[in-house]
Amino acid sequence: MTQHMKRALVTGGAKGIGRGLVERLAQEGWEVAAMDRDAGALQGLPQGARAIEGDVSDEASVRAAIAATGWDGLDLLVNNAGLASPEAGPIEDLALADWQKWIGTNLTGAFLMTKHCVPLLRARRGAIVNITSSRAHQSEPQTEPYAAAKGGLTALTHALAISLGPEIRVNAIAPGWIVTTGWDELREIDHAQHPAGRAGRPEDVAEAVLWLAGAGFMTGESILLDGGMTRKMIYAE
Which EC number(s) does UniProt give (predicted)? Predict the structure, then answer.
């Protein structure tokens, strides 16, 4: 029996956490499609990875991007694409169009990708990993659309797990402070506030994604990956 090469589709794969995921999966021998609306940033992907231009918030674009893979099966879908900045300004000044932009990319995008990848995932009894955020569980001021989108994605995760199981497992990772650039610019206090002793790196998220891709008894869960930061009580001194 010939064993097929594992296939993964990573949205938002051009930069940051997504780029780290693409590089690690390719390193582990996966065939990877890195999907991003920024075609220019998809240059220089590692061997085993290919660029797919597409906008997760647009259904026609999603259909075209998935068709462009030419795949008849999928082992892993990582819904990582999203607007990275959480700051939206005062709620009374927030335009509906801006609210919809956050929701459209960070939440609706995962819905559309999942909807159109389900047949491919079923063909290989694959897995979905949604990248949410610790901001689904705690907030800073003026981050309502980002928090709402990530909270919605957390709920979508367990809803999909129930609907799609047992053929497809669905889990989420909620990263905390993941440093994608400027690691050497961090202060000692930036690391020390994490019980793990440091801020996070894209490699930390990649490790968790790889584990969830093969964790056959794990579904419907959201893993907080924040170095313990949300578990630490903070009192004014």
Answer: 1.1.1.47
